[in-house]
Amino acid sequence: MNAMDARLNALRQKMSEMNLDAIYVNSAENHLYMSGFDNPDGHLVITKEKAYVFADFRYIEAAKAEASSAFEVCLPNKPTLNEIVRDGGVKNFGYEDRRMTCASLAGLKKTLDGMGVEFCPIGGIFTEIRSYKTDDEVESIIAAQRIAEGAFAHILKVINYDMTETEVAAELEYYMKKHGSEKPSFDTIAVSGTASARPHGVPRPVKLEKGFLTMDYGAVVNGYHSDMTRTIVIGKADADITKLYNTVLEAQCAAIDAITEGAKNANMDKIARDIIDNAGYRGCFGHSLGHGVGLEIHEQPGVSGGMGDATLKVGQIITVEPGIYIEGKYGCRIEDMVLITKGGKQNLTDCPKELIEV
Asked: CA 94 to CA 117: how far, in whole Å?
């Protein structure tokens, strides 16, 4: 059984559990995940027995070439949604309540008015399935990560005191695009000096400030994202900067060391947070330890203190990214991606983490 067939089987099992006769898929990520065809303007309809890719004239040739053979590729309204519902005996129709706009849902209901259909929100049905990565998904994420690592090695060679934060971000993105990335994983973060105290700061058109330079970025391969943060020092690191950096590094390494199949997500966060708090930086690590990564940059599972009894499971990929941020002064974050394996883990990030001064 190929990966696409396995995904359809897993989805139909969930549909059976939720008593759904069909699902309307409108989000770009789930469209790609289920069909293998990337079309942000298209949609899928998946019933108990059939699966349809709907693409307009601009994309129909690509859809026929790229979509899984398990899907019938169709132009809009050929067949119509009413025909699919009638012929498939669809009564309970699932929709992506977390991704569909109110206007789109209203339009869907209007289209099927009089068909006796009940519209059922599907919640996190795709989120759960997608949290477990197959070998081919892991390979794509690793490929994206290797491109990002190359960008880090490149920026260390070309960075200089006359560069601006926006130029650093642009240089990282240009390198990744040139070496095979489809696009940046997200808006690249490159913030220096006082701006490094902002975890998701926006690169500024100003020359790099002395002190920390935090770079958070990633590449995309086959639709799959990588995510990495490295913080370096512009100029010389004083004792305070060195202590802060080494504290973040210690927290990150301790959390990674503890990661294994069956470990509690919340405990991983606590391990890193306790090290930071006990080093004198209580209240300076204000975000969660990490998150899942895949077709979206933020996926399940979450890795935070609010995860209750949730445990790490084989096939999940999480980020491990503790940070310390001192408002108005500076901040530092270090981030790797880790795959949960049977009885252990594999760090997918192969990039220097020692304190680097430039």
From this structure: 10
Cis before residue 322, ω within 30 degrees of 0? Answer: no
Cβ atoms 61, 42 nearer than 8 A:
no
State the maximum Cα–Cα separation within the chain, in Å, rounded to a whole number: 72
What dihedral do alpha carbons 231, 234, 238, 242 form, nearest 10°? 10
Strand-pair partners of 303 = 290
In which band, very low, low, confident or very high, does the pLDDT at 40 lie, cut at 50, 70 and 90?
confident
Of the candidates 128, 93, 131, 137, the residue with the CA atom closest to the CA atom of residue 112: 93
Burial profile 157-174: b = 16 or more Cβ within 10 angstroms, e = fewer: eebeeebbbebbbebbbe
Which residues, at least 6 apart from 24, have a Cβ–Cβ distance to it below 8 Å? 43, 44, 45, 93, 94, 95, 96, 108
**Distance from the first to the final alpha carbon of the chain:** 51
**pTM (2 decimals)?**
0.95
3-state secondary structure of 258: helix
pLDDT-derived band at 97, boundaries 50, 70, 90:
very high
Confidence of residue 4 (pLDDT cuts 50, 70, 90): confident
DSSP code string of 173-231? HHHHHHTT-SS-SSSPEEEEGGGGGSTTPPP-SSBPPSEEEEEEE--EETTEE--EEEE
Per-residue pLDDT averaged across 117-139, rounded? 95
Q: Which residues touch 83 (CB under 8 Å, ≥6 apart)?
A: none
pLDDT at 142: 98
User: Cβ distance 310 to 288 under 8 Å?
Assistant: no
